[in-house]
Design goal:
about 25% helix, 14 helices, Acetyltransferase, 7-stranded mixed sheet, alpha+beta, about 500 residues, transferase, single chain
């Protein structure tokens, strides 16, 4: 086991309760009554950085401000049972969290609106909440069920601040944390982070930072300058201090499932997507691909190789569109993909830039076009859109937002949108060993979920496999599960068998 720190953190709380003791507590002794999944909060601590912050206010950028209407990000990891008492584990996590907040003081602050309506992160060491919960009636097998929907009634209780809108960071902590101990000793560590303060890259940088400190390593320094677009005078005004609401119906019925795509399945899709025209196929296909080959946007030589992930996204786009039975043939379908701007800007900004540096690349096609064409065609469309999303496109989008500021319109108002978030390149398993073992699985809460919202996770094996978390209405999910063309690529990860 790696060395783990044991310094005392700056906290304001009652002491943590061990898992064994907590499971025997009478109902009145628990801080929160058991929710639908039988998860009970047994201690709540307010944790401050272990060193005072000297960081000045950080002004929210043109990439941060649109996220004020989004829910806080909710992501977490299941871990094997640690080889130490639960009271020691909680103390260890709180102590290392206090040191991690000193390294990343933005997460221990609050949002403040200045007299000129600029919104800043005030790094005032106000602190965060840390909850210790137990689930004496639940085990890892209750959460990670092969070939089944995610048990959202259980997973939602693994996270605090459920469905909190990011603007609430004016009044509430910018991050909250919960460690939940299951009956079999497995542990879930969940982080909830304000989406106007972090994007996915920054979120997982902090998760890695906390884990590194916990196991006795030094964290990687982060870049807190929020000026990669330069200074902007654009502001978002919220009269009377009443912030925005989310832009979608958070209570619409959804089924959620994590589909696993093995490295072999992804290689097969990539090979199909990059196959040259000719060598069989009917006259119609030859005509279609002949036109594509002479279109500079679609020519393989000009666009470069279609990636594994683009190939997978194309397969999802085709299948989900087929599953949406109510769409008319002339309806326009939209595939939105979150784009990390850090390496696309010129000059590039640091990979360790801490804040939002994302935009949304949009690809469209009609339902009939997707029905007529195949994986290669759809993947070519996605590839062309992403290849064109460079420095110029990013800066044009930023300039357009500054000319007309507004919150990011998450959702699917016409029922024909797919929104792909997160990334299979995020270090969810790599770098997140807190000192007692590598994570077993990643799961998310209910934040920012609607019809067509999808999130990409790396496969647990680290072999190029990918997990896609898919949220769809019940009837659409049922149709997708009956789609043999799609399901032939789906398998169960070996660690869940």
């Amino acid at each position: 086991m790696a060395q783990m720190i044991s310094t005392m953190p700056m906290v304001d709380a009652a002491p943590a309760v061990s898992a064994i003791m907590a499971s025997k507590l009478p109902q009145a002794a628990c801080l929160d009554a058991p929710a639908s999944g039988g998860i009970t909060v047994v201690s709540r601590q307010h944790v401050r950085p272990d060193a005072a912050s000297a960081m000045a206010d950080l002004t929210l950028s043109v990439s941060d401000l649109p996220m004020l209407s989004c829910h806080y990000i909710q992501k977490g990891l299941f871990f094997p049972a640690p080889d130490l008492p639960m009271s020691s584990l909680v103390s260890l996590l709180v102590s290392s969290l206090s040191r991690a907040l000193a390294a990343v003081p933005a997460l221990a602050g609050r949002l403040v609106t200045l007299p000129d309506d600029r919104i800043v992160i005030r790094c005032n060491d106000a602190g965060v909440d840390f909850l210790h919960a137990v689930a004496p009636g639940l085990s890892l097998d209750d959460f990670l069920v092969p070939d089944a929907d995610v048990p959202t009634k259980l997973t939602k209780d693994l996270f605090p601040m459920d469905r909190t809108v990011s603007y609430e960071g004016h009044r509430r902590p910018l991050t909250s944390f919960q460690v939940t101990v299951l009956r079999d000793g497995a542990v879930f560590i969940g982080i909830v982070a304000n989406h106007a303060v972090v994007d996915g890259t920054s979120f997982w940088h902090f998760f890695n930072t906390w884990a590194a400190i916990c196991r006795g390593d030094s964290p990687t320094p982060l870049d807190f300058r929020r000026n990669f677009f330069g200074d902007s005078t654009a502001v978002l005004r919220f009269h009377g201090g009443v912030g925005p609401a989310v832009t979608f119906d958070a209570d619409a019925p959804l089924r959620e499932r994590v589909f696993h795509f093995s490295a072999d399945a992804i290689r097969e899709m990539k090979a199909i997507a990059n196959r040259r025209p000719g060598g069989g196929g009917g006259g119609h296909d030859a005509e279609v691909y002949g036109k594509m080959a002479h279109d500079p946007k679609n020519n393989p030589e000009s666009r470069g190789e279609i990636s594994s992930f683009q190939s997978l996204c194309a397969q999802i786009w085709l299948a989900v569109t087929r599953a949406r039975k109510r769409l008319s043939p002339d309806a326009t379908t939209t595939f939105r993909m979150a784009v990390n701007c850090r390496h696309r800007l010129r000059p590039a900004i640091s990979p360790a830039y801490f804040g939002n540096a994302i935009q949304s690349a949009v690809t469209t096609a009609t339902v009939s076009e997707l029905a007529r064409h195949d994986l290669r065609w759809a993947a070519g469309k996605l590839n062309a859109s992403l290849a064109a999303y460079g420095d110029g496109a990013i800066r044009r989008a930023a300039a357009a937002w500054q000319a007309k500021p507004g919150c990011f319109p998450l959702g699917n108002p016409d029922g024909s949108v797919i929104t792909m978030g997160s990334s299979n390149r995020f270090p969810m398993y790599e770098g997140n060993d807190f000192g007692w073992g590598r994570p077993l699985a990643v799961r998310s809460g209910r934040a920012n979920k609607f019809d067509g919202k999808m999130s990409a996770f790396p496969g647990h094996a680290g072999d190029g496999s990918v997990d896609i978390e898919v949220c769809l209405p019940p009837e659409t999910m049922a149709a997708l599960l009956r789609d043999a063309e799609f399901m032939q690529y789906v398998s169960c990860p070996s660690h869940l068998l």
